[in-house]
Amino acid sequence: MNSCQLLYVWLLLPLGLVSAGRGTFTRNSDDEFQLLIAGGIIPDNSKYTRSIVSIRTLKYIQYYGDNHFCTGVIISSRAILTAAHCVTDRHKAIMNPHGILVVFGTLNRLDAYDDDYKRHVNRVELHPKYRRYINYDVAILYLRERMPENMRYAKPIAKRRRLRIVEGMSCITMGWGQVYPHGPYANQLMYLDVTVRNHEFCKDMDNFKAEGNICVEPFAEGQLCPGDMGSPILCQGYLAGIAGGAQKCEGVKSIKFVNYTHVEKWIDKTVRALSGSSNCILSPILYALYIMIVA
Ligand SMILES: *[C@@H]1O[C@H](CO)[C@@H](O)[C@H](O)[C@H]1NC(C)=O
Question: What angle do CA 274, 276, 279 make, to 5 degrees?
Fold first, then answer.
């Protein structure tokens, strides 16, 4: 609940106008994450998958899901985190938010879905220090409407303040990107185990900057491909970063992710500001009403 809604509660409580529980989105308190091994398809019942969304253009061409272009993560019932380069062009011009669709609660990219499983985007916010393919490659998509509450298969991702990511840690990433270089996008959500390495390990990558990025080694020949950008990396079950920057999808020995801890303040602040501005439009009117009734 943001501070603006809190204000409503205080104002309206004496009038008996507030219904309990409104506006909450059940938190993911589930930390019994089990590490999956290597790479492959995510099983149906996995807790990993419910915070992942498919980011698409408004209309599909021939099949549901053929308009998927990036992956994203549910931060709150109205905010999606993804890579900034997914929603900007090379001149940093932002895509029209009204041309972006977010589909959640589904494991298969090509499945048909109804209106409860999709949301339109109202606003796109880029990190102010974003440099294409280099660092701060994060953006927030703010949805026109909240996601439905009580949806089992769509929940905000588990976060831990200042999560410590240390060398050698086993983590997992997932997405619907190309299954091999220049190949088709995956239908089922795929996962890949990765191991955190020091920054030195990534120094041969194009444009690798240590600041703000996490460097990992993929299991076996694993790689991130077009369609996987914006995918989360989870360590110990918590959001550690998202796939950003330029990544090769062939002959890969290292992968980089934007370090979530490095950008979490900006994310929190941005989400708060966005939810504040949309919920407070009526407040002067409500306040006047309150004064009239109470006085
Ligand atoms: C991620 O960012 C935080 C905050 O800037 C930093 O303390 C931490 O060392 C970074 N983690 C990695 C793996 O670089």
Answer: 110
